[in-house]
Design a protein that fits this description.
The protein has about 180 residues and is an alpha/beta fold. The chain has seven helices and six strands. A six-stranded parallel sheet has the order 1-4-3-2-5-6.
């Protein structure tokens, strides 16, 4: 199944410059493919994600990991097929011992709760591969203001440039809204 995903490669935008690279965490795919929710805040997040997705390929190079594939594979068969179809053309980041080590550092330093190792691993993958952005709707363990500051601090202490952690809405251009 992994062979469906492209290996990492640098892509240019129309002007010959390299596109900014974005790690797409699983919650973004969930918001993109889920049935519209009754909760108006979640529904607004879903709509923002759909608008972002419509134009994202022109401006960014998108990446997922084996972890995103595993998480997208879980649950209802039809829903998982839809999630996997959405990410099937994205670049695949390999897991490395360095990304596993950095994820453990996030846990050991209390940045991410031990029970949320997958969240720490998403962050570590983006950081160790030098991606500029990590797109997520996980505001509790990844994109919360305090968590973000701690992630950035630990990344720098460990010698990595931290990815900018943001929601898809924050990655939209003014003319996308």
């Amino acid at each position: 199944m992994v062979s469906r995903w492209r290996r990492s490669c640098s892509q240019e935008n129309g002007g010959g410059e390299l596109k900014p690279r974005v790690y797409v965490e699983t919650s973004v795919i969930g918001h993109l493919t889920a049935w519209p929710q009754r909760d108006v805040i979640v529904l607004a997040h879903q709509i923002a994600t759909q608008k972002w997705w419509e134009s994202v390929f022109d401006r960014f190079e998108l990446f997922v990991s084996e972890l995103v594939i595993r998480e997208c594979s879980a649950g209802d068969n039809q829903a998982s097929r839809e999630r996997l179809n959405v990410i099937s053309e994205l670049n695949l980041l390999p897991s490395t011992t360095e990304s596993e080590r950095l994820a453990r550092v996030f846990i050991q330093r209390g940045v991410v709760p031990e029970a949320q190792f997958p969240d720490a691993f998403h962050i570590a993958l983006a950081a160790t591969h030098g991606l500029q952005f990590l797109a997520t709707w996980n505001l509790r363990h990844i994109a919360g203001a305090v968590v973000r500051a701690n992630i950035e601090r630990v990344c720098r202490e460990e010698g990595y440039s931290p990815p900018t952690i943001c929601t898809p809405e924050e990655l939209m251009e003014v003319n996308d809204a």
